[in-house]
Amino acid sequence: MTFLTRVDRQFMLRNWISRNLKPIKRFNMYYGDSRTLLRLAKENDERLADIDHEEFKQAMARCGFYADTSYTDEHYTSLIYNVSTRSVKKLMENRRPDLLKLVPVSQLEE
Question: What's the domain of life for this entry (predicted)?
Fold first, then answer.
């Protein structure tokens, strides 16, 4: 991956974070998990589908979000951020419709 590609990806990700997530004063244990937020970013914007966890954590830090690392170790690297519940719930409601389609059981067996 070239340097300009990495910069463009960070720029897109930081724009998405600043448009969709709002910071609060304390850490959100229920909706502030970094892996959950990354999944929501990928589901809401198809251009972010190949962003990895480390890139997401760097972008969150550059956007001014604080991370709680007290629950991390070498096996569990997910961070807890100070993101508002309202902004995360809004993202959950506005997921891309093609990801929410129900597939009949008969199609799964094929």
Answer: Bacteria
pTM greater than 0.85 (yes/no):
no
Query: How distant is the alpha carbon of residue 22 from its chain centre?
Result: 13
Whose CA is closest to 36, among 75, 91, 86?
91
User: Where do we find the tokens 């937020």?
Assistant: 37
Residue owning tokens 């502030």: 32
Kindly report the backbone phi and psi dihedral angles of residue 56, in degrees, each rounded to the nearest multiple of 5, phi listed first: -65, -45
How many domains does the structure of the chain reveal? 1
**Which domain range does residue 44 map to?**
3-109
Per the document, the length of the chain is: 110
Half-sphere exposure (CA, 13 Å, Cβ side) for 56?
A: 23
Residue 42 parent element (H or E): helix 34-44
